[in-house]
Amino acid sequence: MHMLFFLIFGIILVAMYIAIRRQLASTTIIAAAGVFGSIVSMTLFGLAQGNLFAHALTVGFLIGGLFSGAALVIAFYFQGNEMRHKAMQNNQTE
Fold first, then answer.
1. Residue 82 to residue 22: CA distance in whole angstroms
2. Cβ contact 88:34 at 8 Å
3. pLDDT at 94
4. What percent of the chain has pLDDT above 90?
5. Can you give the pLDDT at residue 20?
């Protein structure tokens, strides 16, 4: 059962990255939902392994928060590069 929660965690990270890169919704909503989902899925992962609730919650916040933060930073980095590239192309054609 715990591998299912880990798979959900991975899907949340990938979906959050793609949603930000494709600008499918407000970045604030995507980021908040992604971070919350990551924390919940990692907490459930820890609980499924038989850890105490406090330990699972701590690990959920640390791992879920760090990995979702990393996914957000990567998505914003590449999105910013893409926007700068498009702006430079627009300036060259004018």
1. 11
2. no
3. 65
4. 80
5. 94
CA distance 9 to 37: 7
3-state secondary structure of 37: helix
Rounded to a whole number of angstroms, the CA Rg of the chain reads 17
For 33, phi then psi, to 5°, come to -65, -40
Structure tokens at 46: 């820890």
Q: What is the pTM of this model?
A: 0.88
d(CA 27, CA 42): 22
Residue at token pair 């430079």:
88
Following CA atoms 77, 5, 35, 22 in sequence, which dihedral angle do they give, to the nearest 10 degrees?
Answer: 40
Has residue 59 got a pLDDT over 80?
A: yes
